[in-house]
Amino acid sequence: MALAERINAFVKLGRFLSQFSKENPQPNSAIPLNDLFFEGMKHQLKLAQENNGWFTQENLRFAIGNWAEALQEEKLIRWTENYNLDAVSPKKVAIIMAGNIPLVGFHDFLSVLISGHDVLVKQSSNDKHLLPYLAKYLEYVEPSFKGKISFTDEKLTDFDAVIATGSNNTARYFEYYFKDKPNIIRKNRNSVAILTGNETKEQLEQLSDDIFTYFGLGCRSVSKLFVPKNYNFQDFFGGMYGKSDIMNSAKYANNYDYNKAVYLMSLFDILENGFMMIKEDTQYASPIATVFYEYYDDLSSLQEKLKADAENIQCIVADIHMENEVKFGQTQHPELHDYADGVNTLQFLVNLL
């Protein structure tokens, strides 16, 4: 199967997914095999929500919409054009996936298949419904994928390389267990935002997307703010106000109430607005419904600190002309070349011998 054929199959998958990025999806008769897969996909989305209360219909639509946008022919060609993927000698690559947000492991799945390798997937129990169904669609639109995609709930065996995502604790286990295989091991990371006090109202409203999308559960979700001394949080809270209906989620509201009670009983100083709390803290990973903040003296010292802490950070949202900064509102819209942890997955896969 040539690269062009693999790209074409994923373009068809993207068109199929595009139907489900809006409320009340309507079937498009021009999409290949839609009569066979459309109703089944609706059922898988229902199962995904029932299996994981954090996977609301809104979050599922958002994730699917992002992938429908990414799986366009010109984007896939641009992403792969600098690699000789037709010369790759196929290996079996195992992927151990996280389950914190819908289809969080899809980029690894796409990368392995687009590079010409076979994939062996071990899914998280929190996100187990969507990917096997999409894999089945791929096999129907491009029969050459049959035999190249497999899923397992058992211990991984008979593979040549591995991409594993987990917590810092599980990463230590992965590093030991997979030490004799080519590997990418991912640990906990969080995203941060640098505020100067000069942000526009629009930028702060966009920052609310970076904070609240997926309830803040993604590694690209902003969980920490860096603010100048004497920063007035009034404008920040104003930018967050549009997300107040997040309290309609019982799971989120329960976490908000619980964490607020813990902070108050512990006599921690917090600021809150009825649906989120901010707390001064040097850590990067904050609990649900909480964003940590830390004061900085000057931007140059802060940038040095963030470089030193790079292994803990996925994205830096800022408007200070910093290298690799992400624009406000864009953390949850990564491009295909925006690799998790900054590790070029495609290059890793091309280099497998």
What does this structure look like?
With 353 residues, this protein is of the alpha/beta class. It folds into two domains: 3-187, 3-Layer(aba) Sandwich (Aldehyde Dehydrogenase, Chain A, domain 1); 190-317, Aldehyde Dehydrogenase, Chain A, domain 2, CATH 3.40.309. 39% of the residues lie in helices and 15% in strands. The chain contains twelve helices and eleven strands. The strands form two sheets. It has a six-stranded mixed beta sheet, sandwiched between helices. A five-stranded parallel beta sheet has the order 3-2-1-4-5, with helices on both faces. Strand 6, helix 8 (201-212) and strand 7 form a beta-alpha-beta unit.
What is the share of helical residues?
25-40%
- pLDDT averaged residue by residue: 97
Radius of gyration: 21 Å
CATH class of the largest domain: Alpha Beta
- How many helices in DSSP terms? 12
Overall, the morphology is: globular
| Low-pLDDT runs | none
How many β strands by DSSP? 11
CATH architecture of the largest domain: 3-Layer(aba) Sandwich
User: CATH superfamily of the largest domain, please?
Assistant: Aldehyde Dehydrogenase, Chain A, domain 1
Order of helices and strands: HHHHEHEHEEHEEHEHHEEEHEH
Q: What is the strand content?
A: 15-25%
> What's the main sheet like?
6 strands, mixed
Structural class: alpha/beta
